[in-house]
Amino acid sequence: MKTNRFTIAVAGVFLQVALGAVYAWSVFRVPLMKKCGWSISQVTLTFTISIFVLGIAAFFGGLWLNRRGPRVVAITGGLLYGLGVFLASFSYHKLWWLYLSYGVIGGIGVGLSYIVPVAVLLKWFPDRRGLITGIAVGGFGAGALVTAPVATRLIQQVGVLETFAYLGIAYLVVTVTGGLFMQNPPANWKPAGWSPFQPRAKHHAVRDYTLGEALSTWQWWALWLLLFLNTSAGISVISQEAPLFQETALVSAAAAATMVGITSIGNAFGRVFWAWASDLLTRKMTFLIMFLMQAILFARLPSIHSASTLTVVAFLILMCYGGGFGTMPAFAADYFGSKNVGPIYGLMLTAWGFASAFGPLLIASMRQATGVYRGGLSAIAGIMAVSMLVPVFVSPPRCALRQDEAREGTDRLPKTTAA
Q1: d(CA 271, CA 274)
Q2: Would you say 128 and 272 are in contact if contact means Cβ atoms under 8 Å apart?
Q3: Whole-number Å distance between alpha carbons of 192 and 50
Q4: Ranges 39-53, 73-87, 285-299: which has the least confidence
Q5: Are 183 and 82 in contact (CB under 8 A)?
Q6: What residues contact 164, with CB distance under 8 A and at least 6 apart?
């Protein structure tokens, strides 16, 4: 059984790598503008729609996998994702079709499949919640590392629309294959020798909340806000990454694509690193550090013109961005239990969707209005500075703490027999 859970983890990572190719969207922006005459905001809206729909679909995917099992949800999502990207190849001078195919159909597919490895692996690895969720979504962050250079080469050789067709087929094959491995552990399964009342598990919820119970607490909404704020910052850079590099550092499209690939490593690495760190530092402290780092980095970003320095700064920003997704599933499971983490965290991912509408459109509209990225980047730096207040005040549901303390206290009482 132990080997089985690691096999499922590997399959989940490959599934997430294919889904994470959505983060390479910025390499399509300039070619689509040249091919079809669309504006920055029009092309950026495709990415916004995709991520917004993703966040909504992840919630329904979480509900569905609780009823039908993870394999069906993962495979269905993979089919829709591959189909949506493939259909985007027919978008020539039809912006609405690009929105529908890549944005809506592809976004639904990504959302349905994305939640599956997260929910499944949290159940298989209760002993390493932070680390395993970081690994599970780390593949998603690495998607652009593979896709950005491949897509750029394909665009140069066959054209931007034809590239969607090739990628759509590849995504479908990889996601459906990975989805076949997705399954939940047996009922009441737990790793040998592990107990939720061990010292390293002291922050775990002692009971499983239903979705309705979780929504009735202010803590769920606080976690939603944490994810929204952290995502808004990083996704604004991701949506404009290639052109931002070209304009700020004056590099070629090929060089910018390479920089996108390098910085995407930060997205993937941050998901694993910060999730692992959160097991040691606590989830609250991890978010506080990430917000502080981003406030400093975004404030510094407009004055950087060196390609190497810009790559390092963007790498660190994407580390923090990925860290939010690596840490939050464990955060949610700590507060509300792992049994219903699919729908609970799935609904929380709507923060990702709303952030995709806020961050990218903020920076794109300010860039189009002023001709430079400085204003948008400085605004995000200010938002990150204020965001540091949220992790300071968030705390576990009080009823869960009282139950935890009562259980531990009962365990310490001497055993007696009735008279």
Answers
A1: 6
A2: no
A3: 41
A4: 39-53
A5: no
A6: 85, 86, 88, 89, 91, 102
Structural domain boundaries in the chain: 2-183+200-402
What mean pLDDT comes out for the span 101-129?
A: 89
The CA distance from 255 to 149, in Å, is 10
- Residue 347: pLDDT above 70? yes
List Cβ neighbours of 354 (8 Å cut-off, separation of 6 or more): 52, 55, 228
3-state secondary structure the chain: CHHHHHHHHHHHHHHHHHHHHHHHCHHHHHHHHHHHCCCHHHHHHHHHHHHHHHHHHHHHHHHHHHHHCHHHHHHHHHHHHHHHHHHHHHCCCCHHHHHHHHHHHHHHHHHHHHHHHHHHHHHHCHHHHHHHHHHHHHHHHHHHHHHHHHHHHHHHHHCHHHHHHHHHHHHHHHHHHHHCCCCCCCCCCCCCCCCCCCHHHCCCCCCCCCHHHHHCCHHHHHHHHHHHHHHHHHHHHHHHHHHHHHHHHCCCHHHHHHHHHHHHHHHHHHHHHHHHHHHHHCHHHHHHHHHHHHHHHHHHHHHCCCHHHHHHHHHHHHHHHHHHHHHHHHHHHHHHCCCCHHHHHHHHCHHHHHHHHHHHHHHHHHHHHHCCCHHHHHHHHHHHHHHCHHHHHCCCCHHHHHHHHHHHHHHHCCCCCCC
- 77-87, pLDDT tens digit by residue? 999 999 999 99
- Give the pLDDT score at 409: 45
How many Å apart are CA 74 and CA 111, to the nearest integer? 9
Q: Is 413 exposed, middle or buried (0-12, 13-18, 19+ CB in 10 A)?
A: exposed
In this model, does residue 174 exceed pLDDT 90?
yes
Q: Is 2-183+200-402 CATH 3.30.260.10?
A: no
Instruction: Work out the average pLDDT over 150-169.
Output: 93
**Region of poorest pLDDT, from 53-62, 241-250, 399-408:** 399-408
Q: Indicate whether this model's pTM tops 0.90.
A: no
Return all residues near 415 (Cβ < 8 A) that are at least 6 apart: none
